[in-house]
Amino acid sequence: GDDGRVTLRPTAETLAQHTTRREAGEGARTEFFTYRDRTPETADGVRFTLQANVALGVDLELARDNGTDGIGLYRCELLFLFDKGQPDEEALTRHFARAVELAKGSPITFRLLDADSTAKLEALGDAAKPETNPALGLKSIRVLLRRPALLRTLLRALLRAAAQGNVRVAVPFVSDASDVRRVKEAMFDEKQALRKEKVAHGD
């Protein structure tokens, strides 16, 4: 099945139901494959870009194999959810660089860590404490600006990965222009630092 359940000693009826569901899924995939190699365009012939929303390397491979024009959103938070601690710059750089490699020259947009207190991430520090309304509390860019070392680690890893391809950065949950300005200032500082350290990085 596709809902994470395991049925012990299934009845003939249960087996028949799962067989029907499996065949329906395979039929849907077969139908999708007939559109995979078509140029994405509107009915009146206007070409548009079709990009994927991914979170893991396997997602990137699926996106590439199915003819997308790039990655419109790469979600970074799963790296923190899977790591018991906080992934360091080297670990993040390896992961991001691998994603850029799989993109094979297509643009890839990484979204900075988008998480709130419900994620209970060690990396968020005091921002991981329960809040009455997490969506309006310390989340996403508000957390990163409160934890500049974490923000700069992410930016350095992304800059280093950008040495290998077309990397873009999305800033989640922006409240006003000052949020973007502060991220750009941090990005500039880390570019300068990497240049002084003679570490390969993108622009």
Structure write-up:
The protein has 203 residues and is α/β, with parallel strands linked by helices. It contains seven helices and four strands. The protein has helices spanning 12-36, 57-65, 77-82, 89-103, 141-146, 148-161, 177-196; strands at 52-54, 71-75, 108-111, 167-170. Strands 1-2-3-4 form a four-stranded parallel beta sheet, covered by helices on one side. α2 links the parallel β1 and β2. α2 (57-65) packs parallel to α4 (89-103), α4 (89-103) runs parallel beside α6 and α6 crosses α7 (177-196). The chain starts with 11 loop residues before the first helix and ends in a 7-residue tail after the last helix.
Overall pLDDT confidence: 85
What global shape is seen?
Answer: globular
Q: Runs with pLDDT <50, length 5+?
A: none
Total strands: the figure is 4
With helices defined by DSSP (H or I, 4 residues minimum), what is the helix count?
A: 7
Strand arrangement, major sheet: 1-2-3-4
Termini separation? 45 Å
Summarize the structure.
The chain is built from 7 helices and 4 strands, in the order αβαβααβααβα.
Q: Which terms would index this structure?
A:
alpha/beta; 203 residues; 4 strands; 7 helices
